[in-house]
């Protein structure tokens, strides 16, 4: 009887602990006092000070105590450019880390970003799923997802022209002037329209799987991709994954 009672109590405690774990799950859309919602951030004027809370999704680079980071909350995404950051703190910015950022909203070549920023690490964690934006390619609504982690499915690899006029599946740099280790540029089409995609070498260098995958692309094959919906004179996704379309 005591054994049965003990097992029942233990089971009750497990259920109770599970319930506590569920209720403590971080809400990626919740904000602390004085912190902007994503909607308020979007509405803020350029060059105005902004205070946001978001979760690190990827780190692009660190140099001279400045970090460039892709971040996201439950409603939208942010590009944090050259944010003040020690090398030690940069190591703490793992995927999912929650940070509070104070900086200035800016725009460069269509890319809305936060500059001259500082940050503090907070409790909480969130990794955003890839939002499928395939159907939005070529549409104005795509910009509403700027900087988000996104998926593109069922696109066809198109030919690019290298410096000698040869048709190739990818280029080192946008004009083919680079070499192994530089950014990779490639084109893929959907419904008769062709779009340009980039493997940003600071984000995904030549040792990464995606860098190797793009170098192995063949013109005409169908692929699925994931990456960050960066903007440069129009949509310019920074791709982090390429696989053959299912």
List keywords for this structure.
five-stranded antiparallel β-sheet; OB fold (Dihydrolipoamide Acetyltransferase, E2P); 246 residues; alpha+beta; seven-stranded mixed β-sheet
What can you tell me about this protein's structure?
The protein is α+β, with helices and mostly antiparallel strands. Helix content is 17%, strand content 42%. The chain folds into two domains: 38-125, Nucleic acid-binding proteins (OB fold (Dihydrolipoamide Acetyltransferase, E2P), Beta Barrel), CATH 2.40.50; 131-244, OB fold (Dihydrolipoamide Acetyltransferase, E2P). Strands 6, 7, 10, 11, 12, 13 and 14 form a seven-stranded mixed beta sheet that branches. The longest helix has 22 residues, at 2-23. It is globular.
CATH class of the largest domain, named: Mainly Beta
Rg to the nearest angstrom? 21 Å
**Helix segment tally:** 4
Estimated structural class: alpha+beta
Could you name the CATH homologous superfamily of the largest domain?
A: Nucleic acid-binding proteins
Percent helix, as a range, is 10-25%
Average pLDDT taken over every residue: 92
**Architecture per CATH nomenclature, i.e. the level-2 architecture of the largest domain:** Beta Barrel
Query: Any low-confidence stretches, pLDDT <50, length ≥5?
Result: 1-23
State the end-to-end CA separation: 56 Å
Number of strands: 14
Order of helices and strands: HHEEEHEEEEEEEEEHEE
Q: Any idea of the CATH topology of the largest domain?
A: OB fold (Dihydrolipoamide Acetyltransferase, E2P)
DSSP strand content: 35-45%
Question: Looking at the structure, what is the overall shape?
Answer: globular
Q: Can you summarize the main beta sheet?
A: 7 strands, mixed
């Amino acid at each position: 009887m005591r054994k049965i009672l003990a097992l029942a109590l233990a089971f009750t405690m497990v259920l109770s602990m599970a319930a506590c774990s569920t209720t403590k799950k971080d809400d990626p859309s919740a904000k602390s006092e004085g912190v902007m919602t994503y909607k308020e951030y979007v509405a803020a004027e350029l060059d105005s000070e902004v205070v946001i809370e978001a979760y690190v999704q990827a780190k692009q680079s660190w140099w001279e105590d400045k970090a460039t980071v892709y971040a996201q909350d439950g409603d939208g995404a942010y590009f944090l450019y050259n944010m003040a950051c020690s090398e030690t703190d940069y190591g703490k910015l793992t995927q999912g880390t929650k940070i509070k950022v104070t900086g200035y909203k800016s725009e460069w070549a269509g890319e809305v970003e936060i500059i001259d920023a500082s940050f503090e690490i907070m409790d909480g964690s969130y990794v955003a799923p890839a939002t499928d934006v395939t159907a939005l390619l070529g549409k104005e609504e795509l910009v509403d997802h700027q900087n988000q982690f996104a998926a593109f499915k069922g696109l066809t690899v198109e030919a690019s022209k290298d410096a000698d006029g040869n048709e190739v599946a990818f280029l080192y740099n946008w004009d083919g002037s680079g070499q192994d280790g530089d950014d990779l540029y490639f084109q893929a089409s959907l419904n008769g329209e062709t779009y340009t995609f980039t493997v940003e070498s600071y984000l995904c260098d030549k040792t990464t799987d995606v860098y190797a995958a793009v170098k192995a692309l063949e013109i005409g094959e169908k692929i699925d991709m994931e990456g960050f919906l960066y903007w440069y004179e129009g949509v310019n996704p920074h791709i982090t994954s390429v696989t053959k379309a299912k």
